[in-house]
Amino acid sequence: MVRTQIQLNKKQMERLKEYAAHKGVSLAEIIRRSVDLFFKIENEREEKDKLYLKARETAGKYDSRITDLAKNHDRYLQENFK
């Protein structure tokens, strides 16, 4: 473990202490879990952003020659999954 110092406002400290007491773990453990959760959420957000970018790059790239695809896409999907 690496020791570090952080500054929190009074409300943040109170809420963290209450939560740690409620869970029966140390304040440091709650902060470690919070940091892990932060990076998990950020990683998921980055992966989601990559998927959206890939979808945007693909949209409109291919021509199906179906002129009413936007209007009837559900029907076409249903027909192709039968």
Notes on the structure:
- The chain is mostly helical.
- The protein has one domain.
- The mean pLDDT is 92.
Short description:
This protein has 82 residues and is mainly α. The chain is 71% helix and 0% strand.
Multimer state: single chain
Alpha carbon gyration radius: 24 Å
Count every beta strand, where a strand is a DSSP E run of 2 or more residues. 0
**Helical proportion?**
over 70%
Strand residues, percent: under 5%
- How many domains? The number is 1
Average pLDDT for all residues: 92
Model regions low in confidence, pLDDT < 50 over at least 5 residues? none
Largest sheet: none
Structural class, by secondary structure, is mainly alpha
Q: What is the overall shape? A: elongated
| N-end to C-end Cα span | 56 Å
Count of helical regions: 3
Topology as H/E string?
A: HHH
